[in-house]
Design goal:
This protein is α/β, with parallel strands linked by helices. The chain is built from 16 helices and 16 strands. Strand 5 (135-137) and strand 6 (143-145) form a beta hairpin. The structure holds one RNA strand of 75 nucleotides.
Length: 492
RNA sequence: GGCGCGGUACCCAAGUGGUAAGGGAGAGGUCUGCAAAACCUUUAUGCGCCGGUUCGAUCCCGGCCCGCGCCUCCA
């Protein structure tokens, strides 16, 4: 099976496969670690995660590189404001970033290079560009890429800059540039700023340079796929292409994937709108990491996603449905054998699921056959028609579903617990939803004990006591379900 | 202004030139000590509006209305 993925460069859905060596080499723009990540950031990383997981599912090995940008203007500004050393500041937010990715079950890329550890490589690139006459130095020691040196400029974002007037408005800072659109590949350091002493002077790399340098370092001068948020298409990716292809005379990335921005409650997320949320904000409100993950990936990456609290609640219900079914399959004893109708249903669901994802990662479409199979399975169990061989077949389908979606396996307690500990440390405990605290205060053992006590009470037909226990647990976010095979409980 | 995306049931959201997936929510029912879960039935003669092409359009073309994104080192 081959993944057909929209390619921004060509505007077409095209097969994506490794150009050489059997390993798919991909680069995804990573975070600038200057603050806690928000859900918009995570949508992009989550969609790239869906991509790499699906590739693995269809047997395509991936070498995935994601940069950590640990030097830039915002970092310098924020670290200074916080009175922290740059390194300590970025380390803090980098660690937070990885904790958040783990909470959302985003897999780690194979290579995670830091911008500050590749200054030498970037300096080389600048020298190459300068030698080729594609970059020029200004009086203050900065170096700019000359756009006119790259005729293909605009091919990714479909911009035609040829008709644009230069210099209509030029920042004072940039008066030395030959053309207003020329961009910095090297910035000379102002006094007191973070800077490196290098062969091309004292300064720091331009924003776009790190991605060119590090992608080529770990993937080669040409590679298979480059991904990122839609805002990066221009100018960031366009500039990467310009400087990379000018330096190497080779095509940079063959395939480009851009993830659309999300809206929050119908509006662009912004702090001033009051609809700006970090992952931690949502965990403290009591939403589960799995629900956040599912809500963020259920709308295909090329569509605008309207992220809402209703949507999170809905995702929570959908996950409960899947988990309840999964547990039912696992905990029920089935007679040996196979039911041809169910075997067929499992096969069909799997085929449709895979095909939907192969079709430009259509996650919304991919969900449907899985839920169809859940219904068919539940119905068969109710009617005593599901056999052990069917259970195994369905579990295999669910495993492939979770290989990409990863929401059935319940690892939700830990991220919430960690967010709570973080809130305590950060003095934000008052933001924590009461039921979150109540639920986490109850250990599994305590719940089991109460469940056992209730079962005893029921045996003695002491329903008042049994119901009291159930209600008490419910108030603490624990749901009980009686079944023929015993009592199941779960945290809401 | 330039480039682009979208308007499908109460909400979210797929989709196809031949008659509307899935999830959530609601209503009724089965089961249950009661719940929960599960299952069954039910909720778009209809897919923004108006034309056109076609045997036939939600899906193709044109126009219009509405919403949104990018064009600013915001993923």
């Amino acid at each position: 099976m081959t993944l057909r993925l929209f390619n921004t460069l060509t505007g077409q859905v095209e097969p994506l496969s490794p150009a050489e060596g059997g390993v798919l080499r991909m680069y995804a723009c990573g975070p600038t670690v200057y603050d806690y990540g928000h859900i918009g950031n995570f949508r992009t990383f989550l969609e790239v995660d869906v991509l790499r997981r699906f590739l693995r599912l269809i047997g395509v090995p991936v070498r995935h590189v994601m940069n950590i940008t640990d030097v830039d203007d915002k970092i310098i500004r924020n670290a200074t404001a916080a009175g922290m050393a740059i390194g300590a500041y970025t380390a803090k937010y980098e660690q937070a970033f990885f904790e958040d990715l783990e909470a959302l079950k985003v897999e780690r890329p194979e290579v995670l290079p830091h911008a500050t550890e590749h200054i030498g490589k970037m300096v080389e690139l600048v020298q190459k560009l300068e030698a080729a006459g594609a970059a020029y130095k200004t009086e203050d020691g900065s170096s700019y890429f000359r756009l006119s040196a790259f005729p293909g400029y605009g091919k990714l974002s479909k911009k035609d800059l040829s008709g644009m007037e230069d210099g209509a408005r030029v920042d004072v800072d940039e008066y030395e540039k030959d053309s207003a659109r020329d961009f910095a590949v090297w910035k000379s350091a102002k006094p007191g700023e973070m800077a490196w002493e290098t062969a091309i002077g004292r300064g720091r790399p331009g924003w776009h340079l790190e991605c060119s340098a590090m992608s080529m370092e770990y993937l080669g001068e040409s590679f298979d796929l480059h991904a990122g948020g839609e805002d990066l298409m221009f100018p960031h990716h366009e500039n990467e292409i310009a400087q990379s292809e000018t330096a190497t005379h080779k095509p940079f990335a063959r395939h480009w994937m851009h993830v659309r921005f999300l809206l929050v409650e119908g509006k662009k997320m912004s702090k001033s709108e009051g609809n700006f949320f970090t992952l931690r904000d949502l965990l403290l409100k009591g939403y589960k990491a799995s629900a956040i993950r599912l809500a963020l990936i259920s709308v295909p990456y090329r569509h605008q996603l309207n992220f809402t609290f209703d949507g999170l609640t809905e995702a929570t219900s959908a996950i409960n449905r899947l988990r309840t079914f999964y547990e039912r399959l696992k905990s029920t004893n089935f007679a040996p054998g196979e039911n041809p109708a169910l075997q067929e249903a499992a096969k069909k669901a799997h085929a449709e699921y895979m095909e939907a994802l192969a079709n430009d990662l259509n996650t919304a479409e991919a969900r449907a056959p899985i839920f169809d199979l859940v219904r068919a399975g539940n119905t068969a169990i109710d009617q005593g028609q599901l056999l052990a061989g069917d259970r195994d077949a369905i579990l295999r389908v669910l495993a492939d579903f979770d290989a990409v979606f990863d929401v059935i396996r319940d690892d939700d307690a830990e991220p919430t617990r960690r967010a709570l500990a973080w809130a305590e440390e950060a003095g934000r405990l008052e933001e924590v939803a009461p039921e979150v605290r109540a639920s986490l205060a109850l250990t599994d053992e305590a719940i089991e004990a109460l469940v056992a006590e209730r079962t005893q009470a029921k045996k003695q037909r002491n329903f008042a006591r049994a119901d009291a226990i159930r209600n008490d647990l419910a108030a603490k976010g624990v749901i009980l379900e009686d079944s023929k095979d015993g009592v199941r409980w779960k945290r809401k």
